[in-house]
């Protein structure tokens, strides 16, 4: 099932970040089995890191709504009505309603139709978004293969969030080790400068975890009832967690092409 792919060949997320009419240059013809997955789990549990590793193993694209919203705030996207609405709301510090997020995803349905499959990260985040995703996929005659829920004790989530850094240049995410004395201020992929996300400070983290418990955790039961849930222990190294995920996927029925 798993295939190792060349990162440079396959890591083009232009179509997702910029939206139509931008094209993506990924040679998805290489992907024999397109996995269509949702990655669930509390903020900081490592969904983004797993999405990157799973992308390399399965070829499916990492589609993150958090990345989209960061692209909106930096003006790095095509100005569709949904993106302009999100930009306006963010400028005023308001939360983005389900209808706007779902519209942003719907206008990128080409990414969902992609023959390489997809790894949705950060979407859906509410029951309303889950129902909207169901509708979008139904309209595209697609269905989810599985929903992977990453589980980790709260104390470890908080510690991971405080040591999380993002590369300014390639936007890959890494964890710094405070006990290492050498400076860890550059990205191991491209040498770019690492920075800490504003919403990873302790006050923002506490709000995000409460919002997760209230709005997103109910999706675990929702997807369990639909027979799609795969729970994966998110402790250990990223490679160990990825191996557990691939193992859990292997025990499911292979998706249809
Ligand atoms: P993430 O990178 O997934 O942690 O997302 C960063 C921030 O973007 C979140 O804390 C939310 O404020 C916002 N966000 C991302 N995805 C969604 C979504 N599906 N619905 C609402 N807000 C979102």
Structural class: alpha/beta
Query: In terms of quaternary structure, what is this?
Result: single chain
The total tally of domains equals 2
Give the distance, in angstroms, between the N- and C-terminal Cα atoms.
Answer: 13 Å
Succession of helices and strands: HHEHEHHHHEHEHEEEHHEH
Bound ligands, named by name, code or SMILES: adenosine monophosphate
CATH-defined architecture of the largest domain: 3-Layer(aba) Sandwich
The portion of residues assigned to helices is 40-55%
Total number of strands: 8
User: How big a fraction of the residues is strand?
Assistant: 5-15%
Number of helices: 12
**What's the CATH topology name of the largest domain?**
Rossmann fold
Taking the sheet with the most strands, its summary is:
5 strands, parallel
Q: Give the C-alpha Rg.
A: 17 Å
Strand order of the largest sheet: 2-3-1-4-8
The CATH homologous superfamily of the largest domain is termed P-loop containing nucleotide triphosphate hydrolases
User: What's the CATH class label of the largest domain?
Assistant: Alpha Beta
Q: Can you tell me the residue ranges where pLDDT is under 50 for at least 5 consecutive residues?
A: 2-8
Residue-averaged pLDDT: 85
Question: What form results from the Cα inertia axes?
Answer: globular
Give a quick set of tags describing it.
257 residues; alpha/beta; Rossmann fold; 5-stranded parallel sheet; disordered N terminus; binds adenosine monophosphate
Tell me what the structure shows:
With 257 residues, the chain is α/β, with parallel strands linked by helices. It has two domains: 14-152 and 217-253, 3-Layer(aba) Sandwich (Rossmann fold); 154-200, no CATH class. The chain has helices at 7-10, 14-18, 47-58, 65-73, 81-91, 98-106, 109-113, 127-139, 154-162, 202-216, 218-225, 238-250, and strands spanning 35-40, 61-64, 117-121, 146-151, 164-167, 173-175, 194-195, 229-233. The strands form two sheets. The protein has a five-stranded parallel β-sheet, with helices on both faces. It has a three-stranded antiparallel β-sheet with strand order 6-5-7. Helix 5 packs antiparallel against helix 6 (98-106) and helix 6 runs parallel beside helix 8. It is globular. Adenosine monophosphate binds at residues 43, 64-66, 69, 96, 101, 122-123, 125, 129, 199, 208. The site of adenosine monophosphate (AMP) has 13 residues, from helix 4.
